[in-house]
Amino acid sequence: MASGTVTESKRVTNLSVTTNYGRKVLNVYRVSASGTEKIKVSFCTDVDKSVIVHNFEKRGWVQVGPEDDWNFYWAVTQSCRNIFSVETGYRMDDNQSIIHYNMFVEEYRKSPQSTWIMKPCGKSQGAGIFLINKLSKLKKWSREAKNPFNPNLTKESYVISRYIDNPLLIGGKKFDLRLYVLITSFRPLKAYLFKLGFCRFCTVKYDTSIQELDNMYVHLTNVSVQKHGEEYNSKHGGKLSVHNLRLYLESTRGKAVTEKLFANITWCIVHSLKAVAPVMANDRHCFECYGYDIIIDNDLKPWLIEVNASPSLTSTTVNDRILKYKLIDNIISIVVPPDGVPDVKWNKCPPPEALGNFELLLDEELCAQEDKEFSSGKYRGLSSKWK
Ligand SMILES: Nc1ncnc2c1ncn2[C@@H]1O[C@H](COP(=O)(O)OP(=O)(O)O)[C@@H](O)[C@H]1O
Ligand SMILES: [Mg+2]
């Protein structure tokens, strides 16, 4: 995949697919060290971003090509498919898409006043997204898609979801959260949340009127969309830290509801992972860094919008660069044993000081140990409340 142009992964139709189709095994590492022998760690990357390369070089690792003998590979989906020869598996055929359309019509009839958001499966970063508020518009769009002058359109699958039309606004503007989650194992589930998440704001005020339905500066919070707007501020890049959001909410809505909101966000993340854990490939050599998109509505209810398997590592501001550098740095500290050499036999229990800005969300292995200790009276309570 073209280096330097890889930003965010393609949209997947559904996180809970029953095969691994659509899953992106982001990062792979492999061990060539044996015993205590000191080796030079070699890395390979498909993503030619300085936040990645500088982090590896800082550790004295040497860059090699994918065909060479690497210890650590920051790979995009296609490379992983090649490496593991993963079956591409299940794909929808025409009939199935008709079945899904009927399901949508049923859903639509339950709440005909709702607005819906359509997202092409093969795109990301807000590309090709549009909103509809009438079934007739969807029918018109589908007829147009079948236009013989536009034959490619018929091949594209779309995800359609209920549009959250009452987002929490700050300064009259819509925003969503981008949170990073590291998964070092799916079975048992071991997941960490990066505490330096941020909010991404729209550049123009939120407006639900029909005239603004096509105005993506009102509805889509992606930086890749907003940075083209006239009101885009390249200094702060339309971003606010989650930490500052928390302070803002504590002062405007109160501490208790803010606490509850953040607990619900973690609940959402943990349960989305538990939902897919049984069907994910659980290779001991792999870990994942997911980018979660979450919208908070005006009743302070969080909604999971999307989980990106290859979240964008493009830096738009100075703070952004610092944050993403730390993200990669912290990830490496967690997934590589304390001696700095990738080792598949390691028990994946990083010491607390290796976590950096990550916090443990869930470690099912530790939970199981604690359960044992609990019954024997030695409970320590470290592995998370999300059992
Ligand atoms: N159901 C929804 N309700 C409200 N806004 C949404 C919804 N789905 C997506 N959005 C907005 O559109 C943006 C892009 O959608 P997303 O699913 O993240 O696709 P992409 O892969 O293009 O980033 C989101 O960041 C959010 O601002
Ligand atoms: Mg997104």
Automatic annotation (TrEMBL):
Main location: cytoplasm
Subcellular localization: Cytoplasm, Cytoskeleton, Cilium basal body
Cellular component aspect of the GO annotation: ciliary basal body; microtubule
ATP-grasp domain: residues covered: 293-336
InterPro entries, per database record: ATP-grasp, TTL/TTLL_fam
Keywords tagged on the record: ATP-binding, Cell projection, Cilium, Cytoplasm, Cytoskeleton, Ligase, Microtubule, Nucleotide-binding
Pfam families for the chain: TTL
Oligomeric form and interacting partners: Part of the neuronal tubulin polyglutamylase complex which contains TPGS1, TPGS2, TTLL1, LRRC49 and NICN1. Interacts with PCM1, CSTPP1 and LRRC49.
PANTHER family reported for this sequence: POLYGLUTAMYLASE COMPLEX SUBUNIT TTLL1, TUBULIN POLYGLUTAMYLASE
Name recorded for this polypeptide: Polyglutamylase complex subunit TTLL1
Species of provenance: Habropoda laboriosa
